[in-house]
Amino acid sequence: MVNVKETLGGLEWSVKVADGSSRVLTPESGPLIRRVQLGLEGLVLKVWKFFKKAWDLGVEDPKKVIHCFKVGIALTLVSLFYYMRPLYQGVGGNAMWAVMTVVVVFEYSVGATLCKCLNRVIGTCLAGALAVGVHWIASRSGDRFEPIILGTSVFILASAATFSRFIPSVKARFDYGAMIFILTFSLVSVSGYRVDKLFDMAHQRLSTIAIGTSMCILISIVVCPIWAGEDLHILITRNMEKLANSLDGCVSNYFMECASSTDDEEDFHKKLQGYKCSLNSKATEESLANLARWEPAHGNFSFRHPWKQYLKVGTLIRSCAYCIEALNGCIGSENQAPEFIKNHFSDACLRLSTHTSSTMKELAVITKTMTKSSKIGFLVGEMNNAVQHLHKSLESLPANIPPAQSPSAESSETDKSTSTSTNNNTFAVPLMELLPIVTVASLLLEIAERVESVVDAVTELASMADFKTEKAEKKLKQKQAIVNNKHDKEQHQASQEELTMKALQQV
After folding, report:
1. DSSP 401
2. What are the two backbone dihedrals, phi and then psi, of residue 468, each rounded to the nearest 5 degrees?
3. Which residues does the annotated region (Disordered) include (predicted)?
4. Which of 40, 260, 273, 305 could form a disulfide with 301 if both were Cys (CB 3.0 to 4.6 A apart)?
């Protein structure tokens, strides 16, 4: 028997059991608890995946973690001007502008930080000086003409500065400075109309901005500097290496089809697609080259290092990558040449791709070590010989394919005309069967020609940047080895003397 009673929370259901006792029925809470538990587990799993990705990112590129700590150090030091009373009284309530400056101008690389800092300082000083001058002229023109002069000056200068941001040369290097110029001039001109102590306000703003920018420059250069020029140098070198690996992979996969048996399939696919990195690196190269011009001399890079030449080399590398992309398309094409034609040209094509990739790898070594190589001339000569060999194979295409390997020759033995052609070791090959292999061969010839242009560009870079010769590099390594040996011997002698002195003291 079921009884229903009204309670404060709603209805209470009870059931009488056979022994006369009653039991109160409560709603099952299992499914709700299970849903909450699953939701919490999903949230914890998402948080764990997020932290794992963040950890992997930090392990993969520790420079990003270092940059985060550098920003934290700069903000902490600048914040002292707001926390400590003597420093706060020196800069006044505008100390917060120093904190804002650090947040805005501190960038990942030294070049980007210097670019923004100098742009901000120059734009602020120039705009502040013009605003003060316009304010001085307007204040002596009477109350009637003062707002008109100020408004007209804001309109003219803001319009001119905004138009300058569309000029490519200005946009590439001074876009941020033009924006700061517009902001500062507008603020000073408008606020100067109501503020009496305009010079004091301008002085405090300039001092706080100078504090913030100097702190950013100092920490960016002194504490684990990250150079944009070095990143550009490494990027160009890696693109050369990836291009060479992709060329080898494409040609071997087309003719031999043994990639899955020799290498791991995933690694081979990465090498095969490595050329795409150079296709997508144009914007990065231009940005790094622009930022590298702001950097001081560091390491092997002088103050006026030819960064524009790196852009030229990168452009030529991309031209080779476009050909490799077309070559890669031939692998998956439905229109394939017969195997007997492939086998006939495999030796010449593989030889050319091997010498071309070897030349590209040697260029990568030259650029990476910044050392002139004596082997590059020999490698270019071998590549040109392979080009001539492939040219000869193409010129003698109809006559040099063995007729015994041709299925058309085997099926037409009874035909008199065909038998005559086989006796003369020639036969007619359909044009559609020749087109795929001719396309591959022509692409390889074009790649070799473009690689030779890369050789000329790298040679010009070596001359402009004054790369070291191999002999000078060997002498430098020998001297360094001698110095290291002397240092090790001195340390060993010092440790022996120390042990001897301890033994004598114990005696």
Report:
1. S
2. -75, 155
3. 397-424, 483-507
4. 305
pTM of the shown model = 0.75
Joined tokens for residue 183: 């902001």
The span from the CA of 370 to the CA of 461, in Å, is 10
**CA–CA separation, 180 vs 461, rounded Å?**
36
436, 233, 244, 235: which is closest to 321 by C-alpha? 244
Q: Where are the alpha helices (DSSP H) in 193-224?
A: 198-222
Token pair recorded at residue 346: 């495999």
Q: How far is CA 292 from CA 285, 349, 353, in A?
A: 10, 40, 34
- CA 475 vs CA 44, 200, 338: distances in Å: 59, 61, 55
d(CA 304, CA 267): 40
Q: What are phi and psi of 25, to 5 degrees?
A: -90, 130
Number of Cβ atoms within 10 Å of the Cβ of 492: 10
Task: Tell me the per-residue pLDDT of 91-137, one tens digit each, with 9 for 90 and over.
Answer: 556 677 788 888 889 999 999 999 999 999 898 889 888 888 888 88
Reading the block at residue 300, the tokens are 């092997």
> What's 469's DSSP letter?
P
- Distance separating alpha carbons of residues 504 and 320, to the nearest angstrom: 72
Residue 23 three-state SS: strand
- Nearest CA to 360 among 286, 473, 256, 274? 274
